């Protein structure tokens, strides 16, 4: 679902450039079909962050993404919404409301359609993915020098909600992916689609 955020976007300064781990980054890889890589240039695996934009909450900014459909608190409750209080952006605290208080619904998650949404979700996913690595990862980013497997055990490419890990051998790649999955599960139960178990995993051999 894409929300029309043009009004809010006009109130915001432009976001920083989002440096994605896009396909152009992989074109800069220099791969060696050595014994260490098992004859492949490299090995890679990929995962997806489920419902990425809707996993992150911007409670303090939710009132900037209101929907023009006001109803009283009792009418909202009659529709099945259960709440005893609402967030007040002025006090930054939850406040109680009576049955006659008129309330506007607001979009609490990061709304697709807002100019900052892509940058925030991409950087959040990258910040979750990087810590806890058994070693220092090379990070793939557009318009940055391409890290090489001759310098790093694994390379990490994040494209908003898509995560790619590239390694010289399958064992190190497995180890890095297990840490990565655990990091997202620990981040307020954010889930990635499973990288796959040993029997069913899909290996990608890079050899260009």
Low-confidence stretches: 196-203
N- and C-termini, Cα separation: 37 Å
Number of helices: 6
Domain tally: 2
Helix content: 10-25%
According to DSSP, the number of beta strands is: 9
Q: What structural category characterises the helix and strand content?
A: alpha+beta
**Spatial order of strands in the largest sheet:** 6-7-8-1-9
The Cα radius of gyration reads 22 Å
Looking at the overall shape, the CATH architecture of the largest domain is: 2-Layer Sandwich
Biggest β-sheet strands, sense, barrel: 5 strands, mixed
Shape: elongated
Kindly estimate the percentage of residues that lie in beta strands according to DSSP.
15-25%
Task: Walk me through the structure.
- It is a single chain.
- With 208 residues, this protein is of the alpha+beta class.
- It folds into 2 domains: 15-56 and 113-206, Alpha-Beta Plaits, CATH 3.30.70; 59-103, no CATH class.
- It contains 6 helices and 9 strands.
- Strands 6-7-8-1-9 form a 5-stranded mixed sheet, with helices on one face. The protein has a two-stranded antiparallel ribbon with strand order 2-5.
- A hairpin with a 4-residue loop joins strand 3 and strand 4 (93-96).
- It is elongated.
- The two termini are 37 Å apart.
- 24% of the residues are buried.
């Amino acid at each position: 679902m894409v929300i029309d955020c043009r009004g809010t976007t006009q109130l915001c300064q432009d976001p920083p450039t989002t440096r994605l781990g896009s396909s152009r980054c992989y074109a800069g890889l220099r791969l060696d079909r050595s014994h260490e890589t098992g004859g492949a240039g490299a090995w890679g695996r990929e995962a997806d962050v489920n419902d990425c934009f809707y996993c992150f909450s911007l409670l303090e900014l939710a009132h900037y993404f209101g929907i023009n459909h006001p109803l009283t608190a009792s009418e909202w409750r009659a529709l099945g919404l259960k709440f005893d209080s609402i967030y007040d952006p002025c006090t930054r605290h939850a406040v109680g409301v009576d049955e006659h208080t008129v309330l506007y619904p607001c979009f609490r998650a990061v709304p697709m359609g807002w100019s900052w949404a892509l940058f925030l979700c991409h950087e959040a996913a990258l910040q979750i993915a990087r810590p806890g690595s058994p070693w220092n990862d090379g990070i793939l980013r557009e318009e940055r020098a391409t890290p090489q497997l001759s310098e790093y055990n694994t390379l990490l490419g994040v494209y908003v909600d898509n995560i790619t890990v590239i390694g010289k051998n399958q064992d190190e790649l497995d180890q890095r992916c297990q840490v990565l999955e655990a990091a997202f599960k620990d981040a307020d139960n954010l889930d990635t689609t499973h990288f796959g178990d040993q029997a069913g995993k899909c290996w990608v051999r890079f050899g260009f």
